[in-house]
Amino acid sequence: MKFIIEPGGTMSGTLRVPGDKSMSHRAIMLGALATGTTRATGFLSGDDALATVAAFRDLGVSITGPDDGVVSIEGVGLHGLSAPANNLDMGNSGTSIRLLSGILAGQPFSSVLSGDVSLQQRPMGRIITPLSLMGAMITAADSGRPPLEIAGGQKLRGIHYDLPMASAQVKSCVLLAGLFAEGRTSVTEPAPTRDHTERMLRGFGYSVHTENGVISLEGGGSLRATRLDIPADISSAAFFIVGAVITAGADITLEHVGMNPTRVGVINILRLMGADIEVFNEQEVGGEPVADLRVRHSALRGIEIPVEEVPLAIDEFPVLLIAAACAEGVTTLSGAEELRVKESDRIASMAEGLTILGIRNEVREDGIVVHGGELGGGSVRTFHDHRIAMSFAIAGLRAKEPIEILDCDHVATSFPNFAALAQEAGLGLRIES
Ligand code: S3P
């Protein structure tokens, strides 16, 4: 499936993008480990979150839905999972495989986790190292890539782990393994990353301490089922935010967007570039801040992106680089080597597409320099990466010629109705198979 974007589109109206991917995964995982029935609304029916649903069904958990964003999970308690009959297929989802590995490392049964071509390229050594220190037995394929074989019946012990990279997936993996470990498990991060695991554990009645940058919990407690209202994913909203900012006359309102301070880097960075983003109806829903956003066209200027914003906007750089291409002057991204191990090498994927569209850029090991300019048309590759596909679709709002985006099937991993919502907002998007 490919997208063709015709020039001359706009972004207007009021819309709600689908539910937060990170929270959707965690809702299933924690709901499964709780006692009682957890009901979540706003659940993301994207392929990644559905891979987590399927895995927990394979682990013996009864899950109803998702139906119109509503999902019910019959928790089996911390020690109630059962051995899967087959290998667990995590599809394209790094969050599923890394977080689930933490849970499965503490089970009495063995399991094997695998995924698609993109997932099979992604590094798992980063979770194998701390889990092994806790006493887990995990075997990976070549150079620490999936599939992962996790041996059952290992006794886990709590550790303190200093994360070598800013990764919420690694942090969450260690904390989830800590639920099954003897004693206290704690982590420190080189920079704050999304804290949905910590917040949601507390929502399930599990005590998690955060003090002086150390996040810790005691193993062997219990989780109580709860109700969850999952807000719209700011990472999906980002495509419409940038789309509106770069398009003359645009004016869009995005409803009920998750505004967790560890996720709002995209707004902070765009504001530094001169974007007009109004935040209103701010409220707290189930322990997570939520707001509506009104975004209008603004003249952007190139900036040096502050390194402390990088982990807070880690999934939004593909579309932020489109904003950089539309800005006056030069934008420099550094300290972002983690982008090289996402669903694709996002520095290389974006550099290739930007060059094809006539935007001058220089690739660095830990980032990229983008020179604002005139976007032309052309045919760009996505490298099986949903966010690369959607970012170049948004570039079409400013391109002088049509953009063809090859291989867009993976858009469904995080944003299954992207094409329909973008068309509704005014993007000249056509799907071709
Ligand atoms: C996620 C953490 C981030 C992010 C991913 C979702 C999570 O990955 O890129 O899309 O839900 O914990 P890293 O932990 O690899 O930075």
From TrEMBL:
Transmembrane segments: none annotated. 3-phosphoshikimate binds at residues 21-22, 26, 167, 169, 315, 342. Signal peptide: none annotated. It catalyses: 3-phosphoshikimate + phosphoenolpyruvate = 5-O-(1-carboxyvinyl)-3-phosphoshikimate + phosphate. It is found in: Cytoplasm. Residues 6-419 form the Enolpyruvate transferase domain. Pathway: Metabolic intermediate biosynthesis; chorismate biosynthesis; chorismate from D-erythrose 4-phosphate and phosphoenolpyruvate: step 6/7. Its EC number is 2.5.1.19. Keywords: Amino-acid biosynthesis, Aromatic amino acid biosynthesis, Cytoplasm, Transferase. The active site is at 315 (proton acceptor). It comes from the Bacteria. GO terms for cellular component: cytoplasm. Phosphoenolpyruvate binds at residues 21, 94, 122, 169, 346, 387. GO terms for molecular function: 3-phosphoshikimate 1-carboxyvinyltransferase activity. GO terms for biological process: amino acid biosynthetic process; aromatic amino acid family biosynthetic process; chorismate biosynthetic process. Catalyzes the transfer of the enolpyruvyl moiety of phosphoenolpyruvate (PEP) to the 5-hydroxyl of shikimate-3-phosphate (S3P) to produce enolpyruvyl shikimate-3-phosphate and inorganic phosphate. HAMAP family: EPSP_synth (MF_00210). NCBIfam families: aroA. Monomer. PANTHER family: AROM/DEHYDROQUINATE SYNTHASE, PENTAFUNCTIONAL AROM POLYPEPTIDE. Belongs to the EPSP synthase family. This is 3-phosphoshikimate 1-carboxyvinyltransferase. The gene is aroA.
